[in-house]
Design a protein that fits this description.
Length: 212
């Protein structure tokens, strides 16, 4: 059986990732592909427990290094328990955020830098990489306004200052420039249907679907 594909959706706050992930999963399922939708931080029992420590509470409750380690520990559990078994079973896994979020938020946003985050990732994940990463990009103010309209208690990162959010947006764009074969930047300020069409186009161009 062919191994499944691993697609990640990335972006700042309020970019519309969850909606687009659901729509992409429906479109792939309609083409006969077994899909699973998951998220980070989270996606396994242990990782969801770690999520609760990261997404709520005081903005400064962790040092940047501790925070990067917590995200990475959650990621390792998620991969071992959820993602790798699904890929081995031939399922396409669609993941709301992955290691580029650690690079953008903790590496660029909190200033830990590319080298530190890169080393951490190699240590925890080896060479494992997404087959395709879709980066949903939109102006920071617009994303934060959308996110504020929607959220319950999981707003620890939203409460961080504008300069942090601007740095992580630039970080995502820099990641895409450095790895153009893996990453596609999608303009998320467009209407939902246009974003969906751009995603669908990127997926079919870069990951041709096998005939049923
Ligand atoms: P979510 O709101 O998209 O589910 O993500 C939870 C928050 O966690 C979001 O504000 C981004 C942040 N985050 C990081 O800072 N580093 C990471 O590695 C991941 C996966 C998420």
């Amino acid at each position: 059986m062919a191994r499944g594909r691993f697609i990640t959706l990335e972006g700042g706050e309020g970019a519309g990732k969850s909606t687009q992930l659901r729509r992409l999963a429906e479109a792939l399922s309609a083409r006969g592909i077994e899909t699973a939708v998951t998220r980070e931080p989270g996606g396994s029992g242990g990782a969801e427990e770690i999520r609760a420590l990261l997404v709520s509470g005081e903005t400064g409750r962790w040092s940047p290094t501790t925070e990067a380690l917590l995200h990475t520990a959650a990621r390792r559990d998620h991969l071992e328990r959820t993602v790798w078994p699904a890929l081995d079973a031939g399922t396409w896994v669609l993941c709301d955020r992955f290691f580029d979020s650690t690079m953008a938020y903790q590496g660029y946003g909190l200033g830990l830098g590319r080298d530190f985050i890169g080393s951490l990732q190699r240590l925890a994940l080896g060479d494992f990489r997404p087959d395709l990463t879709l980066i949903l990009d939109l102006p920071v103010e617009q994303g934060l306004a959308r996110a504020a309209a929607r959220h319950g208690g999981e707003d620890r990162y939203e409460r961080m200052d504008l300069s942090f959010h601007r740095a992580l947006r630039d970080g995502f764009l820099d990641i895409a420039r450095r790895e153009p074969e893996r990453c596609a930047v999608i303009d998320a300020a467009q209407p939902i249907e246009a974003v969906q069409a751009a995603i669908s186009d990127a997926v079919s161009r870069r990951l041709p679907v096998p005939a049923p």
